[in-house]
Structures
1.
Amino acid sequence: MRFSTTTTASLLVSTAAAFSDSSPLVLFSTSKYDPTWTPLASPSCMLTSSPTRLSIPAGETSQLQSTSRALHTTHDILASCPTSRYVLISQPNVHASDLRNPQSGLCHSANLCAAVDNKAVRGRYDVAEVVGDDISIDGLSSYIKAACAEQGRKEPPVVEEHLLEALPTQKGEARATKLAENDVEVGDILSGVRASNGGDDDYTVIYFSSPHSSSAVYYESEYVESAAIQMELKRRTGDVVVLDRRAGNASDSSAPLFVKYQFFTPGIFMGIVALIIILSLLYVGLSAVASLEVSYGAFDKENGPAAQKKNI
């Protein structure tokens, strides 16, 4: 979904509604991006206070995006196979408020924030609120390998997959402690990447959350939905409902008659049974009345019972 510049700016207001099923996505790379893209300064960068030098298409800087939209932009960035090494870090159950305090802006993941602010990093892309289906680490890995193969690289890219321990579902000291422990592991991973390259900065890091825990976690979102966004979502939702109904009507019109309609329902069956019983009783009653026989002599005054009594 594309939002206007005004709508995007409204997302930067601190605190508000809760998205228990959303998660952040952070991508940073030491490679320059495609120069045909329009460079955009994004002051809404989630992990750094300085404007990012990320080059991404216009309309893709919203901090509230669906999974499909965020993945679409990520795939666009990775399509050119910008580096020879890729580090995929999956942190289940993490939210944007875990990485940065919404009020103070203090970063809770020191190693991750330091890696993003590293002078070797030339491009950054992050989304604080990714809402929708989980991001597959295997899917990202497969896409990177396929993209680099299409670019005709002589050597296949090195893709590292790291799945961190899930954060506790309840907010508190245990959750903060586990996040700090995992951040140390993130620091070790990134230090190893830089060391393995022999000082040659040629890597791309993607930090995301997948999968979500079945237990809901309540937290305060860093970005608030403005009235414009709510109206846009309602309008688009209404369009989807109308399209679904039209599609349903179109499919029903070509269906057989006995598939579209139910002619023999339980109510109709009970009605038929009751009608049969009533008609049977009516038939018996009419048959009994019709079987009665009375002689015509009973109505004759001369030969009837009254005349016989008089003669006696």
2.
Amino acid sequence: MPSLVIVDDHAAVRTGVTAILTADPDIEIRGEAATGHDAIQLIDSLEPDVVVLDLQLPDRDGIDICREITARTATRVLILTAYEISDNITAALDAGAAGFLAKTAEPQQMIDAVHAVAAGQAYLTPSVTRHVIAQATGRNTPGRRTGAGAPDLTDREQEVLQLVAQGLTNKQIAQRLVISPATAKTHLARIMQKLGVSTRTQAAMLARTADHR
């Protein structure tokens, strides 16, 4: 059962998100916060699986909060925002966010996003996915294709990328492929360099998109 904390400075939004998510008996709401300061304290004390985080908070920038959470806790970050701005998307993913969802999302999308992120997977709406692909493609060299079938990737790198797309950690990938965690980390670094992305979430989304083409 995924546990989570909801962080938004608008009480009405917190109430609405809580109502949507508590409709699923497999989701546990552990707490709410209206500021970045309170969010960090709650996450430290409650250790939720997921934090649903708004980017616009009164005391701290949401991207900085995301970066702090992902750097020093196991809690995964699902961004929930009214603004699907390109710079916000890129900054959030670079800061380690595992998902990015618009506040206009359907209730079932929100529920699915929480479950996916809690399970270690990436969750992006179609519009955000298109942005990630466009950004990665723009950073790649001319003529290079992205995704799991990219000709630059070795067979082993393609195996690693598929496992990343399934939400596995480096340790789990190492166990699955019978390699060391350090080797799995090295493979992932090379994959990200070849695909022109900066986070494993971006790499995972490219792999999942390629699989559905």
3.
Amino acid sequence: MGPSPSPPQPLPATGRLLVLYASQTGNAMDAAERVGREAERGGCPAVDVLSMDSFDPSCLPGERSVVFVVSTTGQGDPPDSMKGFWRYLLKKDLGARWLEGLRFAVFGLGDSGYQKYNLPAKKIDRRLLQLGAEIIIDVGLGDDQHPSGLKSYITLAMMPLQIPLFQVTNQRLTKEDYEKDVRHFELEDPSSAISYQVGDALEILPSQNPSAVNAFIEHCNLDPDCYIMIMSHFATAEHEKERLQYFASPEGRDDLYQYNQKESRTVLEVLEDFPSVHMPFEWLVQLTPPLKKRAFSISSSPLVHPNQIHLTVSIVSWLTPFKRKRQGLCSTWLAGLSPNEENLIPCWVHKGSLPPPKPSIPLVLIGPGTGCAPFRAFVEERAAQSARESTAPILFFFGCGNEANDFLYKDFWLKHAQDKGVLSLKEGGGFFVAFSRDQPQKVYVQHKIKGQSARVWNILCSGAAIYVAGSSTKMPADVTAALEEVIRQKGGEAASGWLRKLERAESMYEQSVVLRDYLWGSNSA
């Protein structure tokens, strides 16, 4: 993570932490690299550590989180690598909102034995605030005179790079006796507003359950080939050694896949299957990767809930081919937390791939099941906007099994579909639900789209954006086929341009489809 020999191009800011350092003798570079390592260890999805003179300061407004590590030279002078960057920040045409949306922290390295102790760090901290940036933590002044130097401060200051939220609501949305368990979670920072937008996702780092931790890590994703191969060296029982060696061989790959991946076996279960294996703890640590964050679409608007983030989460469980019950780690952990116990949840806001739609753009939203999560945020935000300005309507197609069991957020949707709500027919919008199991013949969202072909065509002609979220299997293709049919029926010759855009969108079908240059994703855990 040291400096590159040639100036690197700025990377996309989405989801990363940028660490910029200004060093004269190398101490600030060392400290910056430590900050980067601590951030990666703490779960930051992407970290870049760069010298200040290799970063274009005009790109600063495009960043979300930046840590500055600045040393002091001479009589309170900045390092040479900071001078050009500092001159740019002093430009008079940079307004008080130039860095709005940027969160930052400044770490200074200096010696309190000098009069102008950490002056460059203090100056850059003050200037960033003047330009509209938001401080993560008070400026840190590392002191060579202090026995622990900068080390203790870095450890303390890295914590706010996460967003520690408290769970305040854990509500089941489906009926208690229904096969699917879908929850509404509300996470809160009671002391300050949370910086997020509709369209963002929340990444959560779950905890293992205590019994699994005590048994060396019960749930984790391993490289099974590597793990099985090394285990064979520690087996003392000959039949176990032979079986492990077979699993590690080319001939045993299919059986290994059935044994390990298909059954989602844990470290503990594999060790229990081979009791003669006594693997040293350091080997276990090396072979076991860190837990991965799980991402969930945010289902709330910051205009309505500035201190909260809402999530709509399906609690994942399944049976393996040998009828072992498995559960999703993160969703099960969240469901097991009690709002009464002040559980602190480590999480990160992950910026969406596109900015939220403007209030003046009509929307067609198609989201069966938990695919409705981001659209709850869209509707909530537009309803808040409509109270103070003119907004375009929303046409929303929702799908679920049946009305009695899994009509998620029923009251919310119906409220906004009444009178002058953003989903109301009076305002040019609409809310249509496909209950797939409430009648002998299955009804899905694509059938509702075709049934409302006139409304769909009219709103498309008014410049609507179409978002589809949810299942990544057949649903996106079926929805596109329904839209193509509507466009052919209603558009005649004018449909050719629309169909070309639909065809280009076919390549976007991994987890969702978005038409007319909009892309939306759905997540599961």
4.
Amino acid sequence: MPVHKKYKDMKLLKECVMPMLAIAILPLGACSVANKKTDKNQEVKKEAVLPTDREKIVQPVSAVYTSAELANGVVKGDWAIEKVNGKDAVGEKSPFLKFVPEEKRVYGNNGCNIINGSYQYNPADSTLTFGTMASTMMACGMEGITDYEINQALGEVRYYTCNLSGDDFYLTLYDSERKPVMELMHQNFQFLNGTWAVKEISGQPVDVPDMKLVIDVDEGKLHGNTGCNIINGTLETDMDAANSISFQGIAMTRMACPDPNYETQLIVAIEEATKAKQLQGNKAALLNSDNKTVLLLERTSDK
């Protein structure tokens, strides 16, 4: 299953998951269950759905985060939490936030527990605040950044800035005194969508016109043709680093193929890929854990 996975039935998910979870509605920064007090003049807010893991809570990947949106201060999409009050954000799980402006909601993981709640922002004065968050109640370790530290930082947020550094987008959140309390990096995989011709495998030029890969980021699927056999697999994306990916469950038909035959090299390269990088000229590179290019791809038609 891909990390970025669609809700198939929100109502069914809520009915199935909620009875199994101990739920708390936490003021940001709090570590105990808050008493819920309402009166007839208060707006009754709908409680958030709390899936058991981030595969179920992350919505479909948003459209490409453009430079124009960055300049206009748009806050949307998937962001990996990199630092909290100057400390590297390393927890039991990869902490992240996903902003969904159409819903005015934010989903994520605070390094241990699944969280979601409301948010509002105004690009005109660079203000951003979070509402009360709903959270699962798993017992959390004390190593690295704790869930409490992330909750507390979110509760302090009042302002934000966006900037581009290299190929990556960064979002910095500030408290009321304009002190940075959280730094996040945008996860953008949409450039991988589409059909790609394989031009090089581990630096070796490949001249096989029918060797193509078709990548569907939203569905988390890989299809392709080795030039002879059909391949299928799944695409998983990782919040730990920018454009960190992996391909799993690669399956292939078993037709006998004439030379030159690059099937083995292609499959090995696909399985070694840990990162995707967008290049100029309608090209993309898949890199391995040593940051070496294992596949050079060029965008092409489906034909």
